[in-house]
Specification:
With 789 residues, the chain is an alpha/beta fold. It is 41% helix and 18% strand.
Length: 789
């Protein structure tokens, strides 16, 4: 049986002067933002002005805000000074110079996009934005890979087709940074390439016109967390500045698309990313795009909230390629002005989304059925495989199961003798590292600490599952569930102020919420559930059924109850008597009322834990030395070596919490050699050791090349394949050369061995860079008691 998650909550109010500062700021924002819906709604609210300041100040204080001077620009886009596209430096300048030249001499430009929501909206932004300078169809086109047949990124066949059709310049969006081989092919085909992207960077800059990627910027840059669509927007913005008399459409007309891609891609909304999401939502509410209007109608949203994108528009845009593979029609839907055509396309998207829901529900039901009899005392990781499971929804279902069972999940579909699928992990458990230990069982894999894709022979499934069990137990021997946290303690009387509107509008200043700024959670103590009613919602032609329970809660603070709705929950699961409830406050657009959406509930007699969020600050000095006014060096936990695993972060966090010392990050990213240079170094070392007869330890090779033991093992395999055979003697390695013509290994086997070493080196280099540039806010995923400063 699982260990019950601890409940952590704020127990002390913020300082009076902080509440007063927030109150003063809200008053100033009200005075100057007459047309701002947030300010107007709050001013019209029938709740006392002090309530909204108290509520908002409490949440901000719990999340580490201390300086009111920086708060206005965060709360209100009108008070934020955005960064211009020149913030990308010379790469943006080179991209614009080439686009200006293309405009002047009539070059033909092709947009290369991607099939997820960020990639689709980025393609739409470039199609509309560059379409102001290049006639669409004649001198401007777009290409998006098929999700079910192709992978992300550039492809040889696609490049060859564009070159054969006479296109001269390619502008990518949300893709292309690490497609080194394909970029070389493009050059050989006579194609010039501008890459706009936000994914990992290669070790060495490829030969191309420009590489516009925020990962090349300092981690504290306001542009550093932009998603693909936002980078594409910045490119268009720079072209508008370079050729101001050409465009007939205002640049701001693209902002509705930018908000969708930013929020759907789950990037950290800080700096310009938050600003663009804020202003983009304002434009989305009044969008004149027929396609977006029709999609909003179908999901019964207004476009004023991030959840309208996260749970309405985003899933529908993603569903197009998940079901059909081809996302081209989705870009047409977002950009066409033909309402009749958009209605046809919107129906097609809606059908895809209904099909996606049906497939996702079916896989989820099948997975739950198979897990019903699991022995959780002996199950550290969930691995399920079944023939016929649709590959496009496995990651979505895996994420649901992670939340439900508090374990990493691997879901696979069986296709012949291969198993392919997705993995999702828990915060603090780097599943990419876990998978990397099993490369000998995998055909391929890739991804990030919390999400990965993989493929392996079906014959290896049992060994793979057993190996994952051992690895996860070793890394998390006594893992407990993530704590149930709350930002604000309220009563039913607080909720009833203006029927929930007062509290909802006060907390709406925090939006858009997302990574690093989650939706606020409310703790309501000692409440009683009443009027429980089970309902079933039927949607679409697929006859989808959703179970939910309507309820009301009441406490001693009020004589009236407050309503709520709990999806996928039966009344039997709700404790009888007095309860503590953690929930989010939401607006039900269907019923036009404010409701609670529970996240956790338990009997009120259980002990609560003081919420320690924000008690240990994390100071980021990777871009400069500490300020002179800081306390003595011994009072800080200095981190001068870049961690490379989640477990390293956890050890640092535990030490800081045990010692009650702030964490200071002072390490600098290391410019690591490319896979080719790493292979040449290893090869040179092996040849020297072979010639001299000297032994070497694996640990020495690992330290010298900055690689994991698993990567060193693949490197040794590659050396053996080319005739430098490593032999183990007394715990040391010696290399014994063997002539290639005397070996039985074929050239393809040798090439494959070297390629496997290259692949793991490339992945590890990316992984090191990921941790080297990880924003401090991400540390809260490891322990909520850490607070970025």
């Amino acid at each position: 049986m699982d260990i019950e998650a601890a409940w952590q909550f704020p127990i002390e109010p913020p300082p009076v002067d902080w509440v007063a500062a927030v109150q003063s700021m809200l008053d100033r924002l009200d005075a100057v933002q007459v047309g701002n819906p947030k300010a107007a709604d709050l001013k019209e609210s029938r709740s006392p002005q002090g309530d909204r300041a108290r509520w908002l100040a409490q949440v901000l204080w719990e999340r580490g805000w201390r300086d009111p001077r920086t708060l206005a620009g965060w709360l209100s886009a009108e008070h934020y000074q955005p960064t211009g596209p020149e913030g990308f430096g010379s790469e943006m300048a080179q991209a614009i110079a080439r686009l200006v030249l293309a405009h002047e001499r009539g070059d033909r430009v092709a947009i290369w996009g991607d099939f997820d929501a960020d990639g689709v909206t980025a393609t739409a932004v470039l199609w509309d934005g560059l379409g102001q300078f290049f006639p669409q169809g004649d001198r401007l086109t777009y290409f998006v890979p098929d999700r079910l047949k192709e992978s992300h990124g550039l492809s040889r066949s696609g490049l060859a087709a564009l070159a054969a059709a006479g296109w001269q310049l390619i502008v990518t969006c949300d893709t292309g940074s690490t497609n080194l081989a394909e970029l070389a092919i493009a050059r050989d085909l006579g194609l010039e390439v501008i890459v706009t992207d936000h994914h990992s960077l290669p070790d060495q800059r490829p030969d191309l016109v420009a590489l516009v990627n925020p990962r090349a910027l300092p981690i504290d840059s306001p542009l550093a967390s932009l998603s693909g669509v936002a980078v594409a927007y910045k490119l268009v913005e720079a072209l508008y500045q370079a050729l101001p008399t050409v465009p007939q459409q205002p640049l701001a007309a693209l902002l509705d698309l930018v908000a969708i891609g930013l929020i759907a891609d789950l990037v950290e909304l800080r700096g310009d990313a938050r600003y663009l999401a804020q202003v983009g939502l304002q434009h989305l509410q009044k969008t004149d795009r027929p396609g977006l209007q029709l999609l909003l109608e179908r999901c019964k949203k207004t476009g004023d909230r991030p959840s309208d994108i996260a749970f309405g528009l985003g899933p529908r845009i993603n569903a197009a390629s998940r079901i059909y593979g081809d996302a081209h029609f989705c870009i047409e839907l977002l950009t066409s002005r033909d309402r009749d055509r958009c209605r046809q396309l919107a129906d097609q998207v809606e059908a895809a989304n209904s099909r996606r829901k049906a497939l996702q529900n079916d896989v989820l039901w099948r997975a739950r059925s198979r897990l019903a009899a699991a022995d959780w005392s002996t199950t550290a990781v969930i691995v399920l495989a079944e023939a016929g499971w649709p590959l496009g929804v496995l990651g979505l279902v895996a994420g649901q199961l992670v939340q439900e069972f508090n374990r990493p999940v691997v879901l696979l579909t069986l296709e012949g003798d291969m198993a392919k699928g997705s993995a999702r992990s828990l915060p603090g458990l780097d599943f990419y590292e876990v998978l990397k230990q099993q490369t000998h069982l995998l055909d391929r894999f890739g991804g990030h600490p919390l999400a990965a894709g993989l493929a392996l022979p079906v014959a290896n499934l049992d060994l793979f599952t057993q190996a994952l069990e051992r690895e996860v137990r070793q890394r998390c021997p006594a893992r407990s569930p993530q704590p149930i946290t709350a930002d604000l303690t309220v009563t039913v009387a607080d909720l009833l102020l203006d029927r929930g509107r007062a509290l909802f509008q006060a907390l709406k200043w925090l939006e858009p919420c997302g990574m690093g700024n989650p939706a606020p959670r409310l703790l309501i103590r000692q409440v009683r559930f009443q009027n429980l009613q089970v309902r079933r919602l039927h949607l679409g032609s697929q006859k989808l059924r959703y179970l939910y329970t309507r309820f009301e809660i009441q406490d001693d603070s009020a004589t009236e109850p407050f309503p709520g709705i709990w999806w996928d929950c039966l009344p039997e699961a709700i404790p009888k008597g007095s309860c503590d409830l953690v929930a989010e406050l939401d607006f039900n657009a269907r019923d036009k009322c404010y409701q609670l959406r529970p996240l956790a509930v338990r009997p009120a007699d259980r002990p609560l834990v003081r919420d320690l969020a924000g008690t240990i600050p994390v100071w980021d000095y990777r871009q400069g030395l500490p300020a002179a006014e800081l306390s003595s060096p011994t009072a800080m936990l200095w981190v001068d070596q870049c961690p490379t695993r989640w477990e390293d972060w956890q050890q640092i966090a535990r030490q800081a919490l045990d010692d009650q010392r702030p964490i200071a990050l002072t390490y600098q990213p290391i410019l690591e050699p490319s896979p080719d240079r790493t292979w040449q170094t290893l090869l040179g070392m092996a040849k020297y050791l072979s010639r001299t007869g000297q032994p070497v330890d694996r640990a020495v090779l690992s330290a010298r090349l900055a690689l994991s033991p698993q990567a060193i093992e693949l490197g040794l395999n590659a050396l053996a394949a080319i005739g430098l055979n490593p032999m183990e003697q007394d715990g040391h390695l010696r290399f014994q050369p063997q002539a290639l013509d005397a070996m039985e290994t074929e050239a393809t086997t040798r090439s494959r061995a070297i390629a496997q070493f290259w692949a793991i080196v490339q992945e590890e280099r990316f992984h090191h860079q990921y941790f080297a540039t990880m924003p401090p806010a991400a540390l809260q995923d490891l322990d909520p008691r850490l607070q970025p400063h």
